[in-house]
Amino acid sequence: MTTDSSASSESTAPKEPSLEARSPEEQTPDPPEVKTLDRHLQVRFKSDGERLLLLLPPETAKQDSAGGLTWTELSQQLQHRLNGGDRFWQPNTTVHLMAVDRLLDQRQLQEIAEILNREQLQLDRVTTCRRQTAVAAVTAGYSVEQQSRQETLQQAVQNQAQALTEPLYLQTTVRSGVEIRHPGTIAIVGDVNPGGSVIADGDILVWGRLRGLAHAGAAGNSGCMIMALQMEPTQLRIAQAVARAPANPPSQYYPEVAYETPQGIRITRASDFSKTQMLLGSKRAGHNL
């Protein structure tokens, strides 16, 4: 007669006591819960044509026990992202920093640039909805695009006659290759050098020499104006109208204002400028560009 060894083994093996029957010191604690980081709290890279987007988690993301990332955590996470995983970018790729509503100062922007430089990446532009971050980026020499938190293109067109985002005030020189964008008025105490660009949905005021490109009313508001103490632009734009500086510069410069008329962009001395007359289409001293 044969014996079923498996049945015999099963019948003679001691039974494992149930969890409820074990003493507290015998019980094995449950493994700790593995917490996954919300992707909205992560530093991320995204390919965008020939450039690389660096997306930072919002300052106010996830207002719960996890909270947002501190600056130390953010910089460490950025380094980990660059050091690990598959790299889908080429050396010397330019980086567009999408800072969202995260507040960054010059020191932090410089640290981000240094981390990127170590991996042969070049920080070129900063997009933010925080005015302090925009000012810090411009001061550090980066192109800037400031956005409104709730802005949409449709709202911008519909609300042309209404108040725009608060003005962006900068005390700096806009160097060649630097571009500044803002969904309101831009006021610059300093020069705009050739190769520099200033693009605003509102007016543009340059307390200095305007020698680069200026585009006021970029969302379509033809009632905006461009003013400079010394008007020497490579190109002026107001809404859809485009004009270049005259071939023969004036012998003497005065503070001047550029504005749009049915005949195109005109320029006149600031002392002669009257927005009321402009809206009514009245004739006055000035010349077409």
TrEMBL record:
Keywords: Cell cycle, Cell division, Septation
Name of the protein this chain belongs to: Probable septum site-determining protein MinC
UniProt GO BP: cell morphogenesis; division septum assembly; regulation of cell septum assembly
Highest taxon listed in the record's lineage: Bacteria
Annotated stretches, region: Disordered: 1-35
Function of the molecule: Cell division inhibitor that blocks the formation of polar Z ring septums. Rapidly oscillates between the poles of the cell to destabilize FtsZ filaments that have formed before they mature into polar Z rings. Prevents FtsZ polymerization.
Hydrolase keyword on record: no
Feature: compositional bias, Low complexity: 1-16
